[in-house]
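F.,

This is the one I mentioned.
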């Protein structure tokens, strides 16, 4: 056996040993038993209690009472045969829907039509446009537009709707019943004849026929009456708007005539 070089010069140190406890077999100490923790006992089980079901009382069914017999009505007067329409006389086609007439303010309709005065050249064309527009908007039987000649003091029909025989005719303005009233008042005049013409009525009214109502409106420019519009027998539904509608057209016509005269 080889001795390591570290111990070759000096002998190994013998370390002290602790004294050991020498026990005999009877002196063996029993180890204390280890106590193990036991789990707690489970809680006692509770029995589930079901709710008590109470039976509902059944509704009482009452038998319905029998209805009283209905007595037929007695026909006091028999229906005549003339009122009963036979099957062969009944119409085979469905009835036409009723036509609804428009009651729009006539001034709204006149606004678009009078705009056409910007595209006409002569007073005759302008008067024809105004006469047709008033007759359509007011549903008048006739409309006559007269140009007033200030030098000759006469009226000349330059625009007519519904009485073409009057186109181009002339009458004196001083002796005219309608023209005198319009020029003196310088505002619309309404006359009611009720189908009978007075002795001083203008001759043109006899050509048109005795009117029920006549509304005359002046067209004023430079403080003078340069034209006159006559509306004969307008629709009664527009009676309250005839004078205003004709005055609106008269203003546009007076502007047209004054511009052409100045040019």
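My design for it:
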């Amino acid at each position: 056996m080889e001795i390591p070089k570290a111990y070759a010069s000096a002998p190994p140190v013998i370390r002290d040993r602790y004294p050991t406890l020498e026990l005999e077999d009877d002196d063996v100490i029993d180890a204390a038993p280890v106590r193990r923790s036991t789990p707690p006992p489970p809680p006692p089980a509770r029995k589930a209690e079901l709710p008590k079901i109470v039976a509902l009382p059944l509704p009482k069914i009452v038998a319905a009472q029998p209805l009283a017999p209905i007595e037929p009505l007695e026909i006091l007067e028999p229906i005549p045969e003339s009122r009963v329409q036979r099957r062969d006389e009944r119409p085979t086609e469905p009835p036409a829907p009723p036509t609804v007439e428009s009651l729009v303010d006539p001034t709204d309709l006149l606004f678009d039509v009078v705009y056409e005065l910007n595209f006409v050249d002569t007073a005759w064309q302008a008067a024809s446009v105004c006469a047709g527009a008033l007759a359509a908007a007011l549903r008048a039987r006739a409309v006559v537009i007269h140009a007033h000649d200030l030098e000759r003091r006469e009226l000349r029909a330059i625009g007519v709707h519904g009485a073409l025989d009057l186109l181009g005719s002339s009458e004196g303005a001083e002796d005219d019943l309608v023209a005198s009233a319009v020029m003196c008042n310088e505002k619309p005049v309404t006359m009611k004849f009720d189908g009978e013409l007075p002795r001083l009525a203008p001759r043109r009214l006899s050509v048109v026929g005795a009117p029920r109502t006549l509304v005359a409106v002046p067209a004023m420019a430079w403080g003078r009456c340069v034209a006159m519009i006559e509306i004969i027998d307008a629709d009664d539904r527009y009676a309250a708007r005839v004078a205003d509608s004709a005055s609106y057209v008269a203003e546009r016509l007076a502007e047209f005539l004054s511009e052409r005269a100045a040019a």
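The chain has a mean pLDDT of 78.

Talk soon.
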